[in-house]
Amino acid sequence: MGNIDESFFQETEHRPKQSTIEAENIPLIDLSPILTSDSLNSSSEITNLVAQIGDACQKWGFFQVINHGVPSTCREKIERASKEFFLLPTEEKRKVSRDEDNPLGFYDTEHTKNVRDWKEVFDFVVENPTLLPASHEPHDMELMELKNQWPNFPNNFREACEEYAQGIEKLSYKLVELIALSLGLSSKRLNSYFKDQTSFMRLNYYPLCPIHDLALGVGRHKDSGALTVLAQDDVGGLEVKRKADGEWIQVKPIPDAYIINVGDIIQVWSNDRYESVEHRVIASSMKERFSVPFFFNPSHYVMVEPLEELTNEESPAKYRAYNWGKFLTTRNLSNFKKLNVENVQIYHFRNGDLFTNVLVGLAPNDMVQRTTRRRDTLHSEGVHRLSELCCFAATQLVMLGKSIISTANKVADQDANVEILKMEWPEDSIERAKVIRSKACSMTGCVEAVSSSFITGISEVAEAYLAAVKSVAADSHEVPQKSIQDKANAYAENLRAAHSTAMGKIQDGLQYLPYVVISTSMPAA
């Protein structure tokens, strides 16, 4: 993992506790009833199984399954191949490193919520190639192909991965069908969303960690896809944030069991009946850990929104529709991994109508206070995030310049542990300029997404208030209405100014970099 640095250190409140609660009561579900039939025809066993699935999704968002139908030999092969790969020398693993053009392959500097994870990963897609939008821009219809890259060693690595993926994909479809039934839908209701799927598999390796009290194998997060199917070894380390009290609960490994968790997409489809739950992985100073999660994701063209059957006047849609491919591309714009998780989340697509429902029935003063508090919080957080993005973008542009100079001079920079300084720059100056332009687009895309999200949020809060006051006497809200709307407009302008500042910083940096490219491309005197 290289030299230990502070990029691994979690904030004090997010560091692992000395003692954790072992989750004996995370549901363990026997799937044997589905092994005897290709269809999920109604029977007492299937009905009971569906009820168990629904209860687990609602109360925990996590459960374990046994008698699942995935051959144990497939799992043994991929676990063995994974260990053999990760124990190779680092230079050998980096021959299949992922980069900005291809986010598949080996990677050892993953970040979660701006803190580096204590792990190494190898990613590959189930459908090879997999199509994704080439950019986050809503009107850009261009697609790009993601293609797997495979290492030369171990010899059976690709075969083990592909064989295992087929078995887990079948299990995932069965689980999605059971979840659909638990929501009162037909068993095949969700299947069409996974035609041309963007699902991918990840091999995780967690080396021994001498700072296990400061770092995490993976920081707290929720999974953005539909469903995750996890195989973990006997070391354990996965912790789930219990919905009932917010305590971190350790998930005890069960031989040949799979851990299943609901992702953000199912939360949206179910209109919050089922919730995607935060989880993390503890690092260990005693034993290495290996795991294999499968992320079951829909096709890039799917518009994710609450299902029509699960919404009505009493339970309106809690989310606006969003395009899954654009969502995923926005989170994978570049190698600047510190920006991924923080920028785009499903709460950015929550409908303002929900806040209207919260306000209706409150006393006038309470209505104003709630609106003001939420509006001010959104503004404060938006300014803070844009400021962070501005500083980060400026820093990255400086680092790009240093990387170009270091490459041209063929001298190792003292900050060589920073990933961006290790970039391999093309010899041609025009090609170098294209690389810089691509990275700048990634940064500007992040700024655009964040500013747009918070400006929209503030506007929706004001609109929710205006909708709520229609249910009460107009004269009691005449002055607050204007004040709240004016303040919302002012905050939106303030965020636009912060957005312009961040974009300006990026442009300033871009004006500097061409001189660096030209000067390092000129022949020596």
TrEMBL record:
SUPFAM superfamilies: Clavaminate synthase-like (SSF51197). Coiled coil: none annotated. GO terms for biological process: coumarin biosynthetic process; response to molecule of fungal origin. The keyword Glycosyltransferase does not apply. Keywords: Iron, Metal-binding, Oxidoreductase, Vitamin C. GO terms for molecular function: 2-oxoglutarate-dependent dioxygenase activity; L-ascorbic acid binding; metal ion binding. Belongs to the iron/ascorbate-dependent oxidoreductase family. This is Fe2OG dioxygenase domain-containing protein.
